[in-house]
Amino acid sequence: MKSMTGFGRAQAALPDGTQLSITLRSVNHRFLDLSLKMRDDLGALEAPLRKLVGATVARGHVDLSVRVSRPAGGAVTIDGATAERYAQAWGDLARERDLPRELTARDLLSLPGVVRIAEDEAGETLAATILETAGAALVDLDASRRREGEAVRSALAAILDRLEDGIGRVANEREGLSERLLAQLRERVAKLASGVPLDEARLAQEIALLADRADITEEVDRFRAHLVEARRLMSGEHASGKRLDVLAQELHREANTASQKARELPLTRVLLDLKSDVEALKEQIQNVE
């Protein structure tokens, strides 16, 4: 089991002294939502990086940051053609709007694309290193999410233990319900119709109707089946957060239906405790991938 919360980092250095750092942060999200933060000139790596992350992460919002630091003293070139186009465009605009036409060397050199710093051979070395380093950062992120997932698994197991104990108490509280309903009904009828003979057949029919309305056998059985399935999913290695979330909703539905049928205060109290534990289960499942 893996959590959707984690952190991963990896660093690398190229032969020319370029330093590369990649960090990954992930938090809860219904689906895989990847946000990339890197230089515009590395845009060609977006698709490979998304594919790389998707192969490891099934769900969660992931921030991937790529930082490249090049050493000082690298080869520098000035693109005269680009600078000339800037100057020409500004001259035309200045004449049209009656603006100052002077452009200093500092003005031109600060414009995008005029000054170029030599890249490595066709950028292939940098691109390959980024993907390799991203893979190492993903391994670190995955290990972090697995460690967090083990903590979540322990918390879920404790809640499931409480739920199994709670549904056992519910089953115990319903024992002898028909007999108690019969006694209560006899007492009420006796008070309302003092001295009038009771129609035992009609009384039996009423008891059967009340017992059927208060019967939660199916809810208890389904609740237990859902708990078994939850433990099975927790023991697997595949992403199970969505399935567990559906099961938690089903557990809540069964507990709520049983509460509506409960006719006795002790059973109602037990079911309230059960619903509280189901809510705790739902909160923890929000962290599961």
Query: At CATH's second level, what is the architecture of the largest domain?
Result: Up-down Bundle
Question: Mean pLDDT across all residues, rounded?
Answer: 85
Class by alpha and beta content: alpha+beta
Strand % is 5-15%
What overall form do the CA principal axes indicate? Answer: elongated
Q: What is the share of helical residues?
A: 55-70%
The CATH topology of the largest domain comes to: Butyryl-CoA Dehydrogenase, subunit A, domain 3
User: Which CATH C-level class of the largest domain is it?
Assistant: Mainly Alpha
Distance between the termini: 8 Å
Count of spatially separate domains? 3
**Major β-sheet strand ordering:** 1-2-4-3
Number of strands: 6
Q: Report Rg.
A: 34 Å
Low-pLDDT parts are none
How would you characterize the largest beta sheet?
Answer: 4 strands, mixed
Q: List the secondary-structure elements in sequence, H or E.
A: EEEHEEHHEHHHHHH
Would you kindly provide a written description of the structure presented here, covering whatever features stand out?
The protein is an alpha+beta fold. The chain folds into three domains: 6-73 and 121-144, Ribosomal Protein S5, domain 2 (2-Layer Sandwich), CATH 3.30.230; 76-117, no CATH class; 146-285, Butyryl-CoA Dehydrogenase, subunit A, domain 3 (Up-down Bundle). The chain is built from nine helices and six strands; from the N terminus they run βββαββααβαααααα. The protein has a four-stranded mixed β-sheet with strand order 1-2-4-3. It has a two-stranded antiparallel ribbon with strand order 5-6. β3 (32-37), α1 and β4 (60-69) form a beta-alpha-beta unit. It is elongated. The N and C termini lie close together (8 Å).
